[in-house]
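tool=predict chain=A
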Amino acid sequence: MLLERKTYVVKERLALAKLTATYDLLDAVSGNPIGIAKEEPPGWAKWLRLVADRHMLPTAVNVYEGTSTTPLLSIQRGFTFLRAKVAVVMGDRTIGHFEAKLMSIGPSFRILDAQGAEIGSVKGDWKGWNFQILAASGEVLGTMTKKWAGLGKELFTAGAYAIEISDTAAGRPDVAALLLAAGLAVDTVYKEKK
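tool=predict ok
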């Protein structure tokens, strides 16, 4: 199962001119595909990206396991003006939210549970692509990096990174879903404006 893994390799599919992003989710040992994440905004928002700032428009990133056509997980962002708020939906229930911090020294966003209570954060540096996913207690639940040594260097091009879940967070599907969603949100929702 996709959400029972400790490490995900995420590789963006490159395209010359694109209105949406697609990411392959790869097995960290073999490099074989285990899933796919597709940015699937509403049709009108997709075409409006040609003339408007795309990071302000609604979007969704749907995660599919294997060859399934039903999303296992969805990351949904509405209109954004000052700071992005992103919902993480698994099946038919919202399992959490991400909310960008208005004022922080480094790049950061808060992780909220379904009721809106802060349960953690994502902190890191945008340039080096090194992020930590932290519980509210400060415990490291996972990391995201482009400098991961577990798989051949050929996979780690400009559009690839690894999400690694700590031993204490492994085996908990809701936590794994939030951590995978956090990694995808950094790239598709927060970094896409650059």
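The longest helix spans residues 173-190. The radius of gyration is 16 Å.
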